[in-house]
Amino acid sequence: MRHSGSKMCFAALVTAFGLAAASPAFSFTACQVTDTGGIDDNSFNQTAWKGVQDAQKELGVDGRFLESQAETDYDANINSLIDGDCDVIITVGFLLGDATEKAAKANPDQPFSIVDFAYDPIIPNVLGQVYATDQAAFLAGYLAAGMTQTKILGTFGGINIPPVTIFMDGFVRGANYWNEVKGDSVLVLGWDLESREGLFTNNFDNLDDGRAYAQNLYDEGADIVLPVAGPVGLGSATLADELGVDRLKIIGVDADLYFTDTERQHVYLTSVTKRMDATVAHVIKTTLNGEFMGGLLVGTLDNGGVDLAPFHDMEDAVPDELKAELEALRAHIIDGSVSVSD
What residues are paired with 152 via a beta bridge? Predict the structure, then answer.
């Protein structure tokens, strides 16, 4: 992943945007280009679009989107928005990095923001939105290690790219940390930290793949699985629903899937959330206020940009002692006394 040397800090990301404090004195339109998977993918496209919708509601701006059906749509979709009365163009996903860079350099007066990507050196008219999801995934790995009955966990990704593998990194390291402090031997299948090799469906939209990969991990003994593959993970949830949560539990990613996958909400132990809605809304507000600046916007546990969702239906299943350990671990990650990376 390309990183910017410039960071834009923002406090109380989730609860204190102050969106209503701004009121447009002119017409303002925020335009979004999705990655494949659709605007209603129950994952990163939908969460990012919610940020536009929140800005529409609170700021009175206009919003519209173009869906990418395939990677070949990226350039055409972005270029169709140039000179299209878009005050800011928001592209969603690591895979749009090259297309966004090309369009931004060709149109230096057009503000852009991209979710899950950043540039080094920075491009003055592009603000990257990235997330320390390994922090929240570390908590999820520790939680899963404390909840597993088989001592085997599983994970798989959609495509082997940094915004996917950062979840898997944190999950494995969190389970390893449990083993370290507890003297346990919980195993995580599907991702190797050293070789950077693991299980990947190579897509973000095939629910059948989600079911098949979860089935393979379950057959190998995993009773808790973390799918990092957008809508593909819904297929894993379907399998867990059929098997029963006493045999297989799912940890969601991006959004709190308890609320977005309502037909199968009971299968989710928790979700590793990244508040793309919050960062997108923040970008729209700052652009509206004439404060747009290229660089890097980072969501962390500390500012609420990433988090571990509530346990919802499984609240009573998680021991109080484990909940207390997770709260302490969260504090240690924030103050730096526990590192989630090498």
Answer: 187
Summarised one tens digit per residue, pLDDT across range 156-209 is 999 999 999 999 999 999 999 999 999 999 999 999 999 999 999 999 999 999
* Helix/strand/coil for 73: helix
pLDDT of 6 reads 41
Contact 191, 198 (CB under 8 A): yes
Name the pTM for this structure.
0.86
Q: Domain range for residue 61?
A: 26-131+278-299
pLDDT of 8 > 60? The answer is no
With 80 as the cut, is the pLDDT of residue 20 above it? no
Structure tokens at 112: 């852009």
Strand 126-131 with 295-299, pairing: parallel
Q: Which single residue is written with the structure tokens 């909840």?
A: 147
Are 179 and 325 contained in the same domain?
Answer: yes
| Other residues' Cβ atoms within 10 Å of the Cβ of residue 322 | 15
Residues 255, 276: Cα–Cα separation, whole Å: 9
The backbone torsions φ and ψ at residue 35, rounded to the nearest 5 degrees and listed phi first, read -85, 180
Same domain (yes/no): 176, 159: yes
CA-CA-CA-CA torsion sign (52, 233, 147, 152): negative
What are the phi and psi torsion angles at 252 (to 5°)? -80, 170
Residue 17 resides in a domain: no
